What we know:
The chain is α/β, with parallel strands linked by helices and 357 residues long.
Amino acid sequence: xxxxxxxxVCVLGSGGWGSVIARIVxxxxxxxxxxxxxxxxxxxxxxxxxxKLTEIINKEHENVKYCRGYKFTNNLIALSDPVEAAKYADxxxxxxxxxxxDGLCKLLYGKIKKRAVGVSxxxxxxxxxxxxxxxxxxxxxxxxxxxxHVLMGAxxxxxxxxxxxxxxxxxxxxxxxxxxxLKDLFETDHLKISVVADEDTVEICGALKxxxxxxxxxxxxxxxxxxxxEAMLRLGFMEMMKFVDLFYPxxxxxxxxxxxxxxxxxxxxxxxRNRKCAxxxxxxxxxxxxxxxxxxxxxxxxxxxxxxxxxFMLRNEKMTDQFPLFTVIDQICRGQKEAKELTKCIExxxxxxxxxx
Length: 357
């Protein structure tokens, strides 16, 4: 096959999850005839012991800061310029904190292939100036004039890279043929991918579960029993379903029971960084930002900012009373209420019929 016709892949982002996905994709393309063997990865440049992180990755084939102990294949090339990394790519995989998407799209606009395809692994929303929110995949699609699909699921980066069995993710892709290609690009013997057409629900679940996981962290920090944790998860899941039903109607109920839905909610609520930092927030008296800096080795939390984005919209829609859990979690994160107010919220609302049968 003519090498010029082979499809190229770029990964934008090199944190823990970005590095793990880049490692998988770089290995998979070597076994797929339709793809060019070279995979580029945009790396936010940092210096470790006087050396550039891109230099370390390209020479030692390892991201020693965010994915230590796991080697990349030699066909993965780290670049500090996102335009240089993405300009020839046919498939552009977005794995950055959602706060950076707008600036990244501004840099890339007009400098990538017109027929490129995006895939967002980013969990979060963006505020609209008018008071609403927008999905990250929609932002990428609109600002770059390309289709953008989503990949979300019940996995922890450290477990996927260690090749622990039974890791799963859900690919939201309305184009069946393209979905099959992307499934092959991401899937391994240890990471199984299911494909559904319900793109918006897949993405919304991936964002909202971080709010609920933050609430579970508060429950742990308060030293409450498993009954309260169960009630917290149940109320959180009901609000996730209600949010989709009200603001993105047309989603399928079955999507909530894919890896991106209840499975991801459970995994993140017991093992994710949002839960861990939220528990420390209650016990330490430190701010969310202080804990993020101390505990996450340069990574960012998504639960607190997503809660703020969601309640920003709910306030403008005068609907905070319909989402009491999301609202109180945001208020606790911003210091407007004490964490113990969460108990009152759960007790008052889990006994009500907050979501119709």
